[in-house]
Amino acid sequence: MSIISTILDYNKVFVDENKYEEFQTTKYPDKKIVILTCMDTRLLELLPKAMGLRNGDAKIIKNAGAIVSHPFGSIMRSILVAIYELKAEEICVIGHHGCGMVGLQSSSILEAAKQNGISEVQIDTLTNAGINLSEWLTGFQCVEESVTNSVHLINNHPLMPKNIAIHGMVIHPETGKLDVVVDGYHDVDSSNTEIFSM
Asked: Counting CB atoms within 10 angstroms of each CB, which of 1, 15, 54, 144 has the fewest?
């Protein structure tokens, strides 16, 4: 039996037995926070539990490494939608120790792509179109630096309001311990101080 068949069989029972009722909420995050985190499987349930979050408390965006790699990409768009349309008031970027993006080199991904039938011609087509595959497919060396860089990019986005606290944290994927890398309240307080001193 395929994994999708197993999921669909489970889903039928889930719906028929009204198990969804305990998860019912609105589209607005009750705790008014949007979280960008990594897609690592260890964080699926651990991260919300470690933060005391329940269904409906937060908007959670996931990608490889919890990285905002482009100021006008889909991650940044999702964050702005959460702020302006879904009433989120704080942002938290949460990376994790032991992330697969640490030390990731584009060469290993491109080699795996070739082994899976992607031709050198296809790769060259992307390169010739101006896509820097080396930069796009390369990870980072330090999770704390990566989180700080993403917080900085969000904080300096031209569409980001200055009254939004943008935090950076790193979670331990075994224990759930959170370490603060960037205290977003500090930045909001200092920007408010500058506004009031004008």
From this structure: 1
Give the domain CATH number at 152. Answer: 3.40.1050.10
Structural domains counted in the chain:
2
Half-sphere exposure of 22 (CA within 13 A, CB side): 4
User: Is 57 among the annotated ligand-binding positions?
Assistant: no
The C-alpha R_g of the chain, in whole angstroms, comes to 20
- Written as six digits, the tokens of 148 are 């700080």
Mean pLDDT of 16-41: 97
Calpha distance 104→112 (Å, rounded): 13
Residue 167 known to bind ligand: no
**152 in a labelled binding site:** no
Domain extent at residue 128: 105-138
Q: Is 92 annotated as a binding residue?
A: no
